[in-house]
Amino acid sequence: MYEESADRLVTAAADGEDQAVEAALRPKLLDEFIGQERVREQLSLVLQAARKRGSAPDHVLLSGPPGLGKTTLSMIIAAELGAPIRITSGPAIQHAGDLAAILSSLTEGEVLFLDEIHRMSRPAEEMLYMAMEDFRVDVIVGKGPGATAIPLELPPFTLVGATTRAGLLPPPLRDRFGFTGHMEFYAPVELQRVVHRSATLLDVEIDPAGAAEIAGRSRGTPRIANRLLRRVRDYAQVRHDGVVTAEIAGQALDVYEVDARGLDRLDRAVLDALLRLFGGGPVGLSTLAVAVGEEAETVEEVAEPFLVREGLLARTPRGRIATAAAWQHLGLTPPVQTPPVQTTRGSVPPQPELFPADGS
Ligand SMILES: Nc1ncnc2c1ncn2[C@@H]1O[C@H](COP(=O)(O)OP(=O)(O)OP(=O)(O)O)[C@@H](O)[C@H]1O
Ligand SMILES: [Mg+2]
């Protein structure tokens, strides 16, 4: 899959700076976690019931786009259970033996967080099935015909898996999770609370309208909201007195070319070409890509998903088309649509008039 370039201000993927500051901004308990009401309520029931029974809760799968709080929630699960957490990821587990080593060193009730679980190797995945279901693994000792499987009992533990691509998980793995939380994009009011909370933690003075301005440009994603807040803070401190108002936030994000709806330079270039050069489409992806001077892959995987999500662009079998909202967003007037001419053979598109209608 195409990896989004990390230098994009509105990418949902974490860059180095995000990783450095995210630990400080992560809510630690379920009550501090903003939004995701449904997942939060469901999870809180699962955790409370486990605590009441005094046993480890069912395995939990968290699925959803990057930057919505999966890692944060996994840490909250451990904190709420008062249990230690072990953190690893699918790509880090190359061989079944790597997983066996981790599993066999778990203590009772420990939370094992397996990030990007869809990227685990096949043999490791099969070992995980047994570990999740029976708390047992077969450790293979030796090689070739002399190899023997030694069964190893595991203490009860809770696996928390996270994935941005739930569809890629093999069904046997998906079925072994007792609870799946689907994370959704955040509403602007929720993001406004995220921005406000982070500003307090970063010691940034912000008014509600300033927080709302940043939230509106954050593409429903807390990680982006936190990143935009840091850029706005810089601007406010360098050019002004450090206080973030709606006006300051708007000016700062204009400098960084993130518009009122969270579109960046690339998104706008794609939309602009589609509207101005191709009259709103339909136009093929490769043509559109050439027009903006980008690879087709970049247009398709970096710019389009958000444009589609926002209802600004649609992918059709005949090519990309712009919606009415796209014309409006760029402040352009769509060409007047002449209704198709009705004939006995069905409708045909209006033809340019080559000859005067009176036949002279
Ligand atoms: N509900 C929330 N309330 C407050 N802050 C949040 C919330 N969700 C996420 N965040 C913030 O957003 C940042 C990114 O969250 P997190 O790392 O948990 O995302 P993720 O879903 O694990 O992303 P990825 O798929 O890239 O691993 C965190 O630093 C955290 O501060
Ligand atoms: Mg994560």
TrEMBL record:
CDD domains reported in the protein's UniProt record: AAA
Subcellular location(s) of the protein: Cytoplasm
Role of this protein: The RuvA-RuvB-RuvC complex processes Holliday junction (HJ) DNA during genetic recombination and DNA repair, while the RuvA-RuvB complex plays an important role in the rescue of blocked DNA replication forks via replication fork reversal (RFR). RuvA specifically binds to HJ cruciform DNA, conferring on it an open structure. The RuvB hexamer acts as an ATP-dependent pump, pulling dsDNA into and through the RuvAB complex. RuvB forms 2 homohexamers on either side of HJ DNA bound by 1 or 2 RuvA tetramers; 4 subunits per hexamer contact DNA at a time.
Boundaries of every AAA+ ATPase domain copy: 56-189
GO molecular function: DNA helicase activity; hydrolase activity
Protein's UniProt name: Holliday junction branch migration complex subunit RuvB
Annotated domain remarks: Has 3 domains, the large (RuvB-L) and small ATPase (RuvB-S) domains and the C-terminal head (RuvB-H) domain. The head domain binds DNA, while the ATPase domains jointly bind ATP, ADP or are empty depending on the state of the subunit in the translocation cycle. During a single DNA translocation step the structure of each domain remains the same, but their relative positions change.
Keywords: ATP-binding, Cytoplasm, DNA damage, DNA recombination, DNA repair, DNA-binding, Helicase, Hydrolase, Nucleotide-binding
